[in-house]
Amino acid sequence: MTTTAPEPTTTRAGVGLRLDGLRRSFGRTTALDGLDLDIAPGELVALLGPSGCGKTTALRIVAGFETADSGALLMDGEDVTPVPAHRRDIGMVFQSYSLFPNMTAAENVAYGLRVRKAAKAERAARAEELLDLVGLPGRGGHYPHQLSGGQQQRVALARALAIRPRVLLLDEPLSALDAKVRLQLREEIRRLQLELGITTLFVTHDQEEALSMADRVAVMRDGRLEQCAAPSELYERPATPFVAEFVGTMNRLPGVVRDKGTVTVLGRDLPVHGACPAAGTEVEVLLRPEGLKVGAEGDGGEPATVRVATFLGGTTRLHLTTDSGAEAKADLPSWEAGSLGVGARCVITPHENPVLVEEASTGD
């Protein structure tokens, strides 16, 4: 699958990045199988997918730490495939911080400039500027062991930005942090990325991080791109059943194709989005929990019983079993779900939105 980056809506300082037909194998294992991806100047794209899908290999090829078997990497239209890592002007932030323990925060930030033979005064000024930018004023003299995990990751981010890279790479930089710090830092990273206008490629296994931070999310599977789209489009209009189930929660409910483009599920005919088998085919219909309506008995729809009710704050998730034996999850506003405790009888119907379907497995 090839995706083209959207036209930028504002003037951006970053460079365009193109991954063109990247292939990489390790023995008999194919890590990348012809990956095509365009990233617009100043855009933040998240690579999301299960372990082993190739997202980290793709990032390492962009960084210059891995060499593709075939394909090309272009920055601003220039083929940088043969260019070594230290000459690509790329900043990278790792999951493990990777700070030098014998250097202060300021010395860590200034390290890349020191390697580039920048003057001492320039290094010190740039380090102070960036530590202020990432919210660590006055911490330049602290050593890594004197800083919290979140503060160390801020130092790592400042170090990556110190050389004024053309592209910023983020390799699951928040996964080692606790939930509260992770939320704060992801908001900070996004703010800085927008402020600096730097083209950014972000690898994560965390759906919430990808959907909340990225301009577009690229979902990968087995070394290929399944879909690359804005977070709302990815969630609301997934291109494939894999994307639909990988991003968010999804029900699989039995249905029958009524005619080409229409499926009957829970007593209602719905339009089919994407591939649709022939009329009469038994299928599984993919519906999100918020795509189901739950009403009182007699309202019409599929009769069901509440098996579990999970309070989630403003939302309550109901786990339901229909009288025909199908299992479903439905999300309701908590005020509306208050009367639907365990054992309550109700009826469920789908909202009239297009759905994805897959031909039902016949089993052995």
Automatic annotation (TrEMBL):
It comes from Streptomyces albiaxialis. This is ABC transporter ATP-binding protein. Keywords: ATP-binding, Nucleotide-binding, Transport. It comes from the Bacteria. One of its GO terms (molecular function) is ATP binding. InterPro entries: AAA+_ATPase, ABC_SmlMolc_Importer, ABC_transporter-like_ATP-bd, ABC_transporter-like_CS, Mo/tungstate-bd_C_term_dom, P-loop_NTPase, Transp-assoc_OB_typ2. Residues 17-247 form the ABC transporter domain. SMART domains: AAA. Gene3D superfamilies: 2.40.50.100, P-loop containing nucleotide triphosphate hydrolases. The keyword Ion transport does not apply. It holds the Pfam family ABC_tran.
